[in-house]
Amino acid sequence: MIDVTVNAGAVQLSGAIFDERERQAAIVAAENVAGVKAVRDNLFCAGPLSVVLVS
Fold first, then answer.
1. Which phi and psi angles does 36 have, rounded to 5°?
2. Which of 3, 8, 30, 36 is the most buried (most CB within 10 A)?
3. Total-model pTM
4. Could you give the residue ranges of the DSSP H alpha helices within the chain?
């Protein structure tokens, strides 16, 4: 449920995560891609009841 947009080496992460470890993993994964110059974190941590709303 993470959307990734790239423009001129700038990565934008948006969407829902359910654990802060997911946020860190997504950021590290994006930072380690060749050519990435910046990563913008627009992720939000969804609560357990949010799954019902998105599914």
1. -75, 130
2. 30
3. 0.81
4. 20-31, 50-54
- Nearest to residue 10, comparing CAs of 40, 44, 34? 40
CA atoms of 46 and 6, how far apart (whole Å):
24
Task: Tell me the domain boundaries of the chain.
Answer: 2-54
Tokens for 43?
A: 């992720």
Strands 38-45 and 10-17: parallel
* Confidence tier at 54 by pLDDT (50, 70, 90): low
Which of 28, 4, 31 is closest to 15 using CA atoms?
4
55 pLDDT more than 70: no
